[in-house]
Design a protein that fits this description.
heterodimer; A: about 500 residues; alpha+beta; Rossmann fold; D-amino Acid Aminotransferase, Chain A, domain 1; 3 domains; 6-stranded antiparallel sheet; 5-stranded parallel sheet; B: alpha+beta; 7-stranded antiparallel sheet; 17 helices; elongated
Chain lengths: ~500, ~450
């Protein structure tokens, strides 16, 4: 019998717990969490484990809990515990860990580290960027260059604070510069304020266009094993309209790629992640053990291009891949820990998957309003439709389930095709309700034929351009001419 | 005399309140100028108050940087209109309930007199009545229900956008969808709605979809509510494709340019003629002429250069001024026309005066050998009840004369209108989904 301590309490961790619980080693699952996620709680209880409430980001608390329970290994779900060195502390206590240590987790924590690494090691799929330590320099840069950019907090800040601005119409430049300046100020004063663990403050990256997708991988530092591709949908509302969220739902399969990503692009994406994993070890002198995910975009510049890295599974992306994972997750975890991942063959059920997130109104920008609403789930109805529910940002208050301010639950469905799976997931939406008159929202269009066709069309357009550029030996190269300064080639 | 569309509407909603959207509305309205050139207006909401600036003239003439800077806010709305109301308060966007609501509207509500008589709203123009009605309903119920109940009482063709002091942007299109309206977005930052997709292009937003007939959208700080409040019974205005809309617009998910190219092709198929050159009257008829040339192999020539702005709708009070207008605007390129047998293609013929002037110019002043007129629209026989200004029947040449008679009146060798079937095929919707009233005299709602 194996004992496992799972750290974290979102839908992603619910999916991890679920996959671990399917193991033939019949593990006892314990969870260290800040709140009682109903899904994780149930799995812990059913496997003979329990939930231990506390701060998942507190390395001492986690290490002590792991020791007290004498677990065989810990599995760290979210990024913040990694950034706080939870894996390091747990290992110090003699307990092995699946999940990036403080050092390797820098690939997600510091976007400047990630970009510098990619340039230093000449890894394909990299973008131009500028990192700023103070707001004045960032603003001076914004004033000088009117370009399409992504403004980001230099550190992962709970997925918040990113602003992408296409700046192509000269007549709207002033208004856009104004918003860029205000946003740089916001990043500096608001989003980055709580974080003192990194020197860079603001990142300005070149904006690229194309369809996005996520490649999640297991790695023991030497071997990188990619999981099937998933595409998340970031806009809050239907038709890709609305503010940026952590993701309102995602699609995957059938098979290893998506209907709009080729086999070759999948391989190239995995190769990029592998190069990054290797260069992390080269740079830091310690191996990356755990999960790493590339948030990719197919661009005209490179084909597969890195937008960000996660040092963990994506959420909701984890919920697409873990339910169809047929290889024993305990075996995989032990292979990661033992550096024997090359001996594992990952197998997945051949099916299309759709995840739809349901969030209280107010998410993503007014979580204060989205929080604290009593919520009910008719699990029986969802089961009857052949779908499953994963609990996310919900907690218990006076014995009642209440919303936590982010995406409350995620509905998972599978079928032969994405649109069919989407229909099943959609039919379960009204099984989730608030008990008060505040509202919930979700995206009815995720996985629809229409949206899928749009992605396919966009991908095809981008593919034609990058293939053309490849033929002309232009891949990754950016040539510019600035009046008075002359020709500039950004590629080293 | 040209036919005038009723209005262009536009609305934009920023999800991040850092944005000032007035300049976005301004450029979107410039891109809608084809839909109205007499009045224009912009209203914005900044979280505290709604401000509205409107007046007579073209968007670029009326709005200065100073005026735009006095319109701060993250929700914006605009209107261009070809009609010039008597009082300033009736210029769109109109306000209701002490400026708690602003309203921009395109269309015509047929039963508005009835509504006025049955209510205490007072005498006013239909945009104002609609705004007041909506504002009254909003006092009683939530925006979706309020809009639905207002739409239940309207009989007519309309698209509207309203902004309230509760930071809502309400968008609706009538169940027949006669007036166009579409939705788009700019990254994670804005949602926008516009009469024509070209307005979205111009501000860098991506076109997403048409607003469906009978559909309501409500933007709030925490959601976009969407409801198919009435069963769609499409009767899309065919004239949008023939004439009103910009060729770079997508209307009801169909490309206007594609429709116009097909119209040119059908003209060539239906009315071929032996000629040396194809010439289109700028601007609308250019794609017709290009497609006519592509299909027949007769070279296309640039027949005219326009002088002055692309004013389409100015009402010229006298025959003399109308004549001056045409001659000033369209200067023929002699070398392209002299001594040739020319196919002259135009978008519409209302009274025949303009066509006669052009034919006369080409023939008698420049020396075209033959002039064959082809019109990219079927015979225009009936005035429109839905807010498009078409002259009365006795002023419409097509309602009164046969093509042969018209060709004698305008002095052409031959003259032909596109067939009704041709225009329907070119647009690509089944006949029953189009309003073809101006060509047939039969309007939905018995208009």
């Amino acid at each position: 019998m194996v004992k496992i301590l799972l750290v974290g309490n979102g839908a992603r961790e619910h999916a991890i717990a679920d996959a671990l619980a399917r193991s033939t080693h019949s593990p006892k699952i314990y969870a260290a969490a800040s709140d009682k996620n109903p899904g994780i709680t149930r799995i812990c209880e059913e496997t003979g484990g329990e939930i231990i409430l506390g701060k998942p980001t507190d390395p001492k608390f986690i290490a002590e809990t792991a020791q007290k329970l004498s677990v065989d290994f810990a599995f760290i779900g979210p990024e913040e515990p990694q950034f706080h060195g939870v894996a390091d502390e747990v290992e110090k206590a003699g307990i092995p860990c699946v999940g990036a240590k403080r050092g390797p987790s820098e690939i997600e924590m510091s976007k400047a580290f990630m970009r510098r690494l990619m340039w230093k090691y000449d890894i394909p799929g990299r973008l131009r960027f500028m990192a700023f330590k103070n707001v004045e320099d960032a603003i001076a840069y914004i004033n000088e260059y009117a370009e399409s950019v992504a403004l980001k907090p230099a550190r992962q800040a709970g997925g918040k604070g990113v602003k992408v601005i296409a700046d192509l119409q000269a007549y709207l430049q002033q208004d856009k510069a104004e918003v860029k300046r205000k946003h740089a100020q916001d990043i500096y004063e608001k989003h980055m304020k709580p974080y003192t663990d990194i020197e860079d403050r603001i990142l300005i990256e070149q904006k690229v266009e194309g369809p996005e997708y996520t490649i999640q991988c297991f790695t023991d530092g030497k071997t990188v094993k990619p999981l099937p591709l998933v595409q998340d949908n970031k806009n809050a509302y239907a038709m890709d309209i609305g503010p940026e969220t952590g993701g309102m739902g995602s699609i995957g399969g059938p098979g290893l790629t998506l209907p709009f990503i080729s086999e070759e692009e999948y391989k190239q994406s995995a190769m990029i992640v592998e190069k990054v994993v290797r260069s992390i070890e080269n740079e830091l002198g310690e191996p990356y053990r755990g999960v790493i995910a590339g948030q990719m975009m197919l661009t005209a510049l490179w084909g597969p291009t890195i937008i960000e890295f996660y040092s963990r599974f994506g959420d909701p992306e984890a919920v697409n891949v873990l339910p169809i994972l047929e290889t024993d997750l305990v075996d995989i975890s032990e292979a990661i820990i033992g550096g024997k991942l090359h001996k594992i063959d990952l197998e997945f059920r051949e099916t299309a998957t759709v995840v739809k997130c349901i969030a209280p109104k107010g998410y993503p920008d007014r979580r204060d309003l989205a929080k604290g609403h009593p919520i009910t789930v008719n699990e029986e109805a969802i089961r009857k439709r052949g779908a499953r529910i994963f609990y996310g940002s919900v907690g218990l208050k006076n014995g009642e389930m209440v919303t936590g301010g982010s995406r409350a639950v995620e509905i998972y469905a599978e079928a032969a095709s994405i649109p069919e799976a989407a229909e099943i997931a959609e039919s379960c939406i009204d099984s989730v309700r608030l008990k008060d008159d505040w509202g919930l929202f979700h995206r009815p269009d995720i996985g629809s034929e229409t949206l899928l066709e749009k992605r396919i069309e966009l991908a095809q357009l981008i593919r034609e351009i990058y293939n053309y550029r490849k033929e002309k030996n232009l891949i990754g190269r950016q040539v510019d001419w600035i009046p008075g300064r002359g020709r500039i080639e950004y590629q080293a | 005399m040209k036919i005038k569309e009723r209005c262009g509407v536009f609305g934009i909603y920023a999800f991040d309140q850092k944005w000032n959207v007035s300049r976005f509305v301004y450029y979107a309205l410039i891109a809608s100028q084809n839909r109205g050139q007499e009045t224009c207006g912009i209203a914005t909401f900044n979280g505290n108050e709604i401000r509205c600036t409107k007046g007579k003239g073209m968007v670029e003439e009326f709005f200065s940087s100073e005026k735009l800077e006095k319109l701060p806010g993250w929700i914006g709305l605009g209107n261009v209109s070809p009609t010039n109301p008597e009082s300033h308060q009736n210029i769109q966007p109109v306000s209701a309930n002490n400026s708690n609501l602003v309203f921009s509207y395109n269309g015509k509500i047929l039963n508005y007199r009835e509504i006025v008589n049955n209510s205490k709203l007072g005498e006013n123009e239909d945009a104002n009545i609609a705004a007041k009605l909506l504002s009254e309903e909003l006092e009683k119920s939530d925006p979706l229900e309020a809009t639905e109940s207002v739409m239940e009482r309207f009989r007519g063709a309309y698209s509207f956008v309203a902004v309230t002091k509760n930071a809502e942007m309400i968008v609706a299109r009538d169940p027949m969808g006669i007036k166009p309206l579409c939705i788009g977005s700019f990254g994670f930052d804005h949602g926008a709605v516009a009469s024509e997709s070209a307005s979205l292009d111009v501000i860098g937003a991506d076109y997403k979809a048409p607003i469906k007939p009978g559909e309501i959208y409500v933007f709030t700080p925490y959601s976009i509510e969407r409801k198919q409040a009435f069963k769609p019974q499409p009767k899309y205005c065919a004239f949008e494709y023939v004439y009103f809309s910009r060729p770079d617009s997508i209307i009801n998910d169909k490309s206007v340019y594609e429709a116009r190219m097909k119209i040119g092709e059908y003209l060539a198929k239906e009315f071929p003629v032996d000629a040396d050159a194809v010439v289109g009257v700028p601007e609308t008829a250019i794609p017709f002429a290009m497609a006519y040339s592509n299909y027949t192999g007769i070279p296309i020539e640039m027949g005219f250069v326009r002088t002055g702005r692309a004013v389409r709708t100015a009402i010229k009070p006298t025959q003399f001024e109308r004549l001056v207008g045409v001659q000033l605007k369209l200067n023929p390129i002699r070398r392209a026309i002299r001594g040739k047998k020319v196919v002259l293609i135009d978008d519409s013929v209302v009274r025949g005066t303009t066509t006669r002037n052009i034919v006369n110019l080409m023939r008698n002043r420049i020396g075209a050998k033959e002039v064959h007129v082809r019109i990219g629209s079927p015979r225009l026989v009936s005035p429109c009840p839905f807010g498009v200004e078409v002259p009365e029947k006795d002023e419409l040449i097509a309602a009164n004369l046969t093509p042969d008679e018209v060709s004698r009146v305008v002095g052409a060798d031959t003259f032909a209108w596109l067939s009704l079937e041709g225009v329907v095929d070119a647009i690509g919707f089944p006949k029953e989904k189009l309003c073809l009233g101006c060509f047939t005299g039969e309007y939905p709602l018995g208009g």
